[in-house]
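Follow-up to my post from last week.
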Amino acid sequence: MDASQTPATAANLVLLGPPGAGKGTQARMLQDRFGMVQLSTGDMLRAAVAAGTEAGQKAKAVMEAGELVSDDIVIAILRDRLAEDDCAAGVILDGFPRTADQAAALDDLMAEVGKRVDAAISLEVDDDAMVTRISGRFTCAGCGEGYHDSFKQPASEGVCDKCGGTEMKRRADDNAETVKQRLEAYHAQTAPLIAFYEQKGALSRVDAMADIDAVAKELTAVVERSTA
Ligand code: AP5
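User reply:
Got it. Predicted complex:
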């Protein structure tokens, strides 16, 4: 932990929200602030696709179509990652769970190690704005820091603020047609988890239409309340 971080809370958080809501952006900011580890199942799956693993080969076409990868594959990937030592400091789940079966599996995985989901935070946004957010998104190929053509540009054009890398990339599934399918999958399969966590008394809602720093401020307050 460096001096700029708030002491570790060891909290386990779930970030819910449709594509483009800002889950990845905010998860990285919370990681920097509190020291929990960001776990993005999207990033893990893209790494599996790039590495050509069996899971990656199965996931590739599904992701390109904007549909959800099977629960079995995603739960297995997450189970392995959660068992790694750094997750003891708490995790920020970005893009998991996405189905009722994944949420039940997460409860079981947490219970096995005497933990639980301390807070589930729903990033609330308008679907219409998401296409603009996603079509303008690019990331640093070196460290994964996320940027946007209009909303978050690097201080020096083409140079990552975080690692100084100069290779930027755009995702294959960030096109208008696939985004539409991803939004449909979110509303059909993932949005019901908002009620699931509400019933457990673990849900907070955050207005994620505000600018990035304002959303981060609100999320920080939620995390501090959840771990007080
Ligand atoms: P995944 O990688 O999880 O993508 P996603 O959920 O579609 O979410 P995104 O990464 O597109 O958006 P985000 O909310 O992180 O937004 P970001 O912070 O980048 O999943 C991809 C695919 O993998 C899925 O379709 C599925 O096939 C598969 N998959 C993954 N997990 C799975 C699971 N659990 N089960 C089954 N399948 C799974 O922000 C977007 C842009 O907006 C950025 O440019 C950012 O700079 C900008 N921005 C962020 N916040 C703001 C703001 N407040 N104001 C203005 N701009 C903003």
